[in-house]
Write a structure and sequence with these properties.
It is a single chain. It is globular and about 40 Å long. It has a single domain, classed as Divalent-metal-dependent TIM barrel enzymes (TIM Barrel, Alpha-Beta Barrel), CATH 3.20.20.150. The protein contains five helices and seven strands. By secondary structure, it is an alpha/beta fold. Strands 1-2-3-4-5-6-7 form a seven-stranded parallel beta sheet. The protein starts with 8 loop residues before the first strand and ends with a strand. Helices cover about 25% and strands about 15% of the residues. The longest helix has 20 residues.
Length: about 210
């Protein structure tokens, strides 16, 4: 449509070389790379017992500042669980999220993608996400939502034992019900039964489509 642009990027779950990832964008007519903000194996413990001296991510000198600010979108660690039944996990997840958002702001990363909220309640997720807007106003936070919840074998969903019939759209609405809601929606279009009813006139400003590689 007139005045609108579609920009295509590539999602990386692991980036051994940030330079190679960026250099591979232009030949494939892509504009940006989605990279983990922290090392995928750097699952931090914020307590007095665990003390890790190694850095949790790469140096800010890995890429030029103009590349960080225009061609990179950060991805928060997927293990972050802000609505875990464990208080320790919730507290640790929130501290990790704050650490990664501070890093994103330091490198002038324009946007970050937050992990998918819990399908069985995301009140703390909403509070923590929108609580970051005041301190990270220059960084847009996108929320990743699947079109359908993945099947979880019985017994493997101990941290999320509630009814599995909750519609993903209901979970997104719960995120939007937060008083400070002004988020963006990152949609995974592998399956799309509820996409027909998307109402993007809600606080959502942008709809993303994540498609699997061939």
């Amino acid at each position: 449509m007139s005045g609108e642009h579609v920009r295509i990027g590539r999602l990386f779950t692991c980036v051994p070389s940030a330079h190679s990832a960026i250099e591979g964008l232009s030949p494939n007519e892509m504009y940006f790379a989605v990279m983990p903000l922290a090392h995928p194996r750097s699952r931090r413990e914020f307590n007095e017992v665990t003390n890790r001296d190694e850095p949790f991510t790469r140096s800010d000198l890995t890429l030029p500042s103009n590349v960080w600010s225009s061609n990179v979108i950060g991805a928060l660690s997927p293990w972050i669980n802000l609505d875990s039944s464990s208080h320790r996990v919730r507290q640790n997840s929130e501290r990790a999220m704050k650490q990664e958002l501070m890093w994103a702001q330091h490198i002038s990363c324009p946007s970050v993608i937050a992990p998918t909220p819990s399908r069985h309640g995301c009140r703390n997720y909403s509070r923590a996400i929108y609580g970051q807007f005041a301190g990270h106003s220059n960084t847009t936070i996108h929320v990743h939502m699947p079109m359908m919840w993945p099947d979880v074998p019985d017994g493997d969903d101990k941290d999320d034992p509630a009814d599995k019939s909750v519609d993903p759209w209901e979970t997104w609405n719960e995120v939007c019900l937060h008083p400070a809601s002004a988020g963006d929606l990152v949609v995974n279009y592998q399956c799309a039964p509820w996409a027909k009813g998307l109402d993007l006139s809600s606080p959502t400003r942008t709809s993303w489509a994540q498609v699997p590689e061939p």
